[in-house]
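Let's sit down with a protein and look at its sequence and fold side by side. Once you have written the record down, we can walk along the chain together.
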Amino acid sequence: MPSVDKVISKLETVKMEIKINFHSYRRAKQRNIDMSLVKRKIRNLNLERVKENNQDDPRYSKTYKVTIKGSGTDIYEIPIYFNMGGNEVYVKSVWNK
């Protein structure tokens, strides 16, 4: 299992254009998830936990499931995909945990 610090050090090389596919964005809004908060937490690298994500996407070199704290007692689990040295983090979905 990767450490939060290790993943943060990798994400620091990414220019942090955070992309969320439209379907996932809409579904997250239906679940009352504050997506601007989610994007801000990812951009600021405020990650609580990190684990491997076993899904591959050939467009991205690394993929993890990260957990972040929302407002109040909300906790979200988010699979993220990114290119080391690239310019984007791709969020496929956001779940309440």
Remarks:
- The mean pLDDT is 85.
- The chain is about 25% helix and 30% strand.
- The radius of gyration is 12 Å.
